[in-house]
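Model: You mentioned two targets. I'll fold them one after the other.
Researcher: Yes, keep them separate.
Model: Target one:
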Amino acid sequence: MNHAAAVAAVDLDETGWLLDADTGAPVPEHRLRDYFVERLAPPAWATDIFVYVHGWQTSPSAALRTAERLLALVHGNVATVPAQYPMLVAEGFDPWCVVVRWPSSSLVTPAGYRRIRERAHAMGARGGRGHAAHILGRLLGYLHAERVDPEAAPVLANRDGQYLHLVGHSFGCRFLCEAVQWASDAQLDDTLGWSTVGLSPSRPFTADSMLLFQMAARRDAFLSLFPYILPSEAYDGAPLRGPVVATYSRHDRATGFWHLRAERQPGIGHSGIGPAPAPMFTTRLLPLDERYPLSALDHRFVNIDASDVYVRGRRLNPAGAHSDHVRPESAHLLLTLANYSR
């Protein structure tokens, strides 16, 4: 299969609203679902749907290339070390990826980083002029409604069943967290979560995994920014069936030194998730010849120390290894999460 053909894209403006790919104009609210139907019908051959939201300093073309490179690495890993992903090999694995693009470019300076940080916050925050959480919540809900329920299919992970995985990088992680949090309390029929009403209590969530590469948010973000991710007595929680997995590297200067100056604490991408509303498990990013045991990932929050792998930055780039996540080891982690989703 042509990996590039397995990637679709949607674009958001600076407020987080969806843009028409043909005209560049905002898509009216009443046409959102029709637009998704016209542009983003999940292909019948796909076993897994990935939604990838890019991060800082990424052009629209670079976002597509990154998704294509990740898919190529995914396919390469399955071909090279198939024994690491027995469920995927046994049942078939053909991913399809939706790339969410947003205006993230700025000068590669602390001031530029702060500018995009403020934009990302304004785009994603509810209660203001930001619409990203609303649009992504609608997108995820549409994809969930259109895919066939993998757990109701007679044979899992074939053309009769599709899994949904959320993948973010940098500030894109914030958008995904806001979107699933928004979906937990949105009063719309085509958002995640509401279609599970009346189903077995053993399957309350509908997104099978969330992988956050080098997240650009403060370490206590799951208490301060995303308090509705987990269920409580007051709310149902976000529709996440699998773990929230976050990578970090001490070589990431963007979420290290720069984030420390901006928010008085390092970011998750540098030091991992800190205080959280559930127990945390920490392990390291593994090479392809090592398998992640289920016990290492079967937690609500998982920190993945990638400091031995994410070490490279572009020459003279002061952000360090912030964007060094397009690696075979990253694809190994992504594939493992998909494998354990079965």
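Model: Target two:
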Amino acid sequence: MGLRVSPVGWGVAVVAVLGLVLGRWFGWLELATVGAALTAVLVVSLLMTAGRARYAVTLDMADRRVKVGERALGRVEVRNIARRPSLPSRVELPVGSAVAEFAVPALGPDHAHDDLFAIPTARRAVIVVGPVRSVRGDPFGLVRRSVRWTRPVELFVHPLLVSLAGASSGLLRDLEGQSTRDLSDSDLSFHALRDYVAGDDRRYIHWRTTARRGSLMVKQFEDTRRTTTALALATDPRDYADDDELELAVSVLASVGVQTIREERDLVVLAGPGRLRVETPPLLLDDCSGIVLASGGAGVTLLGRRVVREAPEASVAMLVTGSVPGDADLRLGARHVPTGTRTVVVRCERGAEVSVRTQGSLSLATIGRLDDLPRLLRRVTA
């Protein structure tokens, strides 16, 4: 609950005081009359804020997660829980930086009034909806008193996605079972046989070969590894020509990340000051909704260092940026990625044609539309 006097109200109060004091001091009846009249107006305004309605207010969002372009629907219900009828009132609902107003009529005991609302979502964002406040005040806007009835609710506007099912095989495939050059005496990938030495685990004796050769032979394996995909997004505003490039970059990051999670691959997503949550696709998309550019954000030239620092075990790394950095900057960013890590640097440039240039384990790619992402991945992995 809060009582607030508007700037106009404070101005009226100052004029009223000056009118009363100066009118009495100089004996100016007209000025004193003006001061008295304004004082009466302030008193009436304060009286109009007196009293308190007894409401039970519900803020219900049909869905707290929508994608760009979908309308978020919600409902505000105001119920009079007092034993006597309530007076008409006004309810405010903050939606981001805007405020929606609803008129609540006089309600009988246990009677309710509800209003439906729709929030347009033209941009990816995290929008704070609420808290719902009832407002009482005078018609001149001098004084108002508000009562908070609900807690704020976060509405997540997710970035647009493109399906990568089938298109990601190759770059995002699970490498489990693909051998490294490291030999092991106990793993999943059979490599060769060798002579038994004291201390070897007898479970790995190859009895058929042992019987044929007349001496104990044991299995030797190659270490296997499992893919960890690291996705890193540049958040330095100097990397992007406009906001649309950032939206494309976030959608690329989110599309690859969601597909990786659905395929149950290990994933690390780096954007902004920390890691994004990757336990489920909705949590990843919630965090993607809040990505913003910042003057201190990492540009593409720093993304490789960040992958090394925060995801040193990554076997696949994708660095995503805008159209401003040149090829030298892209290569500089990828230079710090550990040797042997499959690295793809994606430059997002609205309207550009898909292009991929691969040299060794590094691919420099350009994309102009989100729908081109499956084709880009196929070319990267061709």
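Researcher: Noted. Anything on target two?
Model: The two ends are 64 Å apart (CA to CA).
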